[in-house]
């Protein structure tokens, strides 16, 4: 997996992940799986849409995770 994607849940980070951190992780994921650092103009829309979808899924995942020994997180 892409080494620049960091864990975005406590205790790896002390607070809830920011939108910027989530979007950065989503961008790294889409770059990795697509093989493109930056998309060509004809692929930009689908690339950005994928980043948005992955960021949304990441937000939902983090909101639903239960850290062992802790309460369910809310975002």
Automatic annotation (TrEMBL):
Pfam families with a match to the protein in the record: DUF2277 (PF10041)
Domain of life: Bacteria
Protein name: DUF2277 domain-containing protein
Organism: Streptomyces atriruber
Lineage of source species: Bacteria, Bacillati, Actinomycetota, Actinomycetes, Kitasatosporales
């Amino acid at each position: 997996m892409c080494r620049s994607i960091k864990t975005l849940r406590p205790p790896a980070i002390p607070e809830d992940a920011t939108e910027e951190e989530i979007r950065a992780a989503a961008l790294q994921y889409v770059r990795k799986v697509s093989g493109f650092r930056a998309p060509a103009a004809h692929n930009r829309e689908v690339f950005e849409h994928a980043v948005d979808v992955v960021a949304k899924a990441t937000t939902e995942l983090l909101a639903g995770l239960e850290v062992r020994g802790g309460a369910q997180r809310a975002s």
